[in-house]
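Slide 14.
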Amino acid sequence: MCVSSVECERSFSVQNRLKVKYRSSLKPERLDILLKISMLGPDIQHFDPVPAVTRWRRVKKRRTGRLKEDYKPRKKAKTC
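Slide 15: predicted structure.
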């Protein structure tokens, strides 16, 4: 059995994709979870997000975004 660093290199590659500039402050626990999902989870083509989203919404009351039609334009401030 050959020993290689392929799996290690793959995990560093996934980590670099996850820890981009705007997400560089991820806590180690959250990064570990995202790494496991990225490496061990199903392909995106075979993933059904409905159960995950349903559970996420059920865990606590969350503010859901309003529809675009619900927004009313702001009144413009008068300028001199």
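Speaker note: Helices lie at 6-18, 28-40, 50-59.
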